[in-house]
Design goal:
alpha/beta; Aspartate Aminotransferase, domain 1; Aspartate Aminotransferase, domain 2; seven-stranded mixed beta sheet; 15% strand; binds glutamine
């Protein structure tokens, strides 16, 4: 059997959601909203299942969806995309990342990754033959410097995977940070696979800056978005990919033998949804921001040291003040004894993990957040009781 997958544990999201189900816990672990998603978008999908076209759609995605993606990114990010040559629809962002790696690297090529790394990246890089090289981000700001990049990039670097906004830390990187990373990509002739699935989930008046818009990056960026994240329909698994024609030609070859297509009925609904008015997107942001504030405030009231969340569905807490040594033990015990599921941030590390940071998902109804907060009282005594044994 292949050693990458045979040695891999089950993903932390599945593990924590399983424990949450088994123990009837409140699930603030895996990132999915309580909200069922916009009614009109779901009706479009239902209607397309009943009355629409359910055979294989075009391999690159329904033309109406590719046009909608180009229009959407023009409206929100001033991107200029040719829907026929620069847009691809995949079955989720993870397929897009896997396909991009298969398409872009050869055995032994180095891939620069930022720790904490979304958990799918490292196994996919390795299975594609790549050699991961890590930049370590540190709390509370999780930023990177020129020296960090200089240490990770080499003559063998072919690809960097960059997640912005960053899951699990909720960081929205500044244009200056993007430009710094871009300067390394340009100098080393590297392609940036940019996982921008949280692009609409940015708060406090921020707007998303895509790597595509950074000078010199238009021809060397694979931008990946997710309809599931945009419309709170995470199970739909509709990925939105944009890249210059030379890259896209090769990405298409990988996609054609991974999933080939994505359910056309969902594509019809996503095409409709991407055209919703600006107010819809502004309101969605406002609602998530309100939930972020509710959970962050409740956690700080209970003595948690809450780190800023500028985007995503997540807020992280630094538990070193409580003397926590092992976030994985903490999360397991928390779901069993307190009935709240969270995600240990160490699960996003391959080497030298940070072990005192835990991620909570705030994309939930007020009642869910309030019920979880009630179960998170007296954390000091809870953590003292853990013994912190690994
Ligand atoms: N992106 C989701 C999260 O970070 C998890 C997705 C999954 O479980 N594969 O929680």
């Amino acid at each position: 059997m292949n050693s990458v997958f045979s040695q891999l544990p089950t993903t932390i999201f599945e593990v924590m959601s399983g424990l949450a189900r088994d123990h009837k816990a409140i699930n603030l672990g895996q990132g999915f909203p309580d909200d069922p998603g916009p009614d009109d978008v779901r009706r479009k999908a239902a209607d397309a299942v009943l009355n629409g076209y359910n055979q294989y759609p075009s391999m690159m995605g329904l033309p109406e969806l590719r046009q909608a993606i180009a229009d959407h990114y023009r409206r929100f990010q001033k991107a200029d995309l040719d829907p026929d040559r620069e847009v691809l629809v995949t079955s989720g962002a993870t397929e897009a990342i896997a396909g991009a790696l298969f398409a872009l690297i050869e055995q032994g090529d180095e891939v620069v990754l930022f720790q904490p790394t979304y958990d799918a990246y490292v196994p996919l890089v390795k299975r594609a033959g790549g050699v991961p090289k890590f930049v370590n981000l540190r709390p509370p700001h999780w930023t990177f410097t020129e020296e960090d990049l200089a240490a990770a990039f080499s003559a063998r670097t072919r690809v960097v995977i960059f997640n912005n906004p960053l899951n699990p830390c909720g960081v929205v990187y500044s244009r200056a940070q993007l430009e710094l990373l871009a300067s390394f990509c340009i100098r080393h002739d590297v392609v940036a696979i940019c996982d921008e699935v949280w692009e609409h989930l940015v708060f406090d008046g921020r707007s998303h800056v895509s790597m595509l818009s950074i000078p010199g990056m238009r021809e060397r960026t694979v931008k990946i978005g997710s309809a599931g994240k945009i419309f709170s329909l995470t199970g739909w698994k509709v990925g939105l990919v944009a890249a210059a024609p030379d890259l896209m030609k090769v990405l298409a070859k990988a996609h054609q033998f991974l999933t080939f297509t994505t359910p056309p009925n969902l594509q019809v609904a996503v095409a409709y949804g991407l055209g919703k008015d600006d107010a819809y997107f502004a309101n969605m942001r406002m609602e998530f921001q309100r939930s972020r504030d509710r959970l962050s405030y409740g956690l700080s009231e209970r003595g948690f040291s809450v780190m800023p969340s500028e985007g995503t569905y997540f807020v992280t807490v630094d538990l070193s003040g409580f003397g926590l040594k092992d976030d994985a033990v903490f999360c397991r015990e928390l779901v069993l004894k307190r009935g709240v599921a969270a995600i240990p941030v160490s699960a996003f590390y391959t080497i030298n993990p940070v072990r005192h940071v835990v991620r909570f998902c705030f994309a939930k109804h007020d009642a869910t957040l309030d019920a979880a907060l009630e179960r998170l009282e007296n954390m000091q005594s809870f953590i003292d009781g853990l013994g912190n044994s690994p």
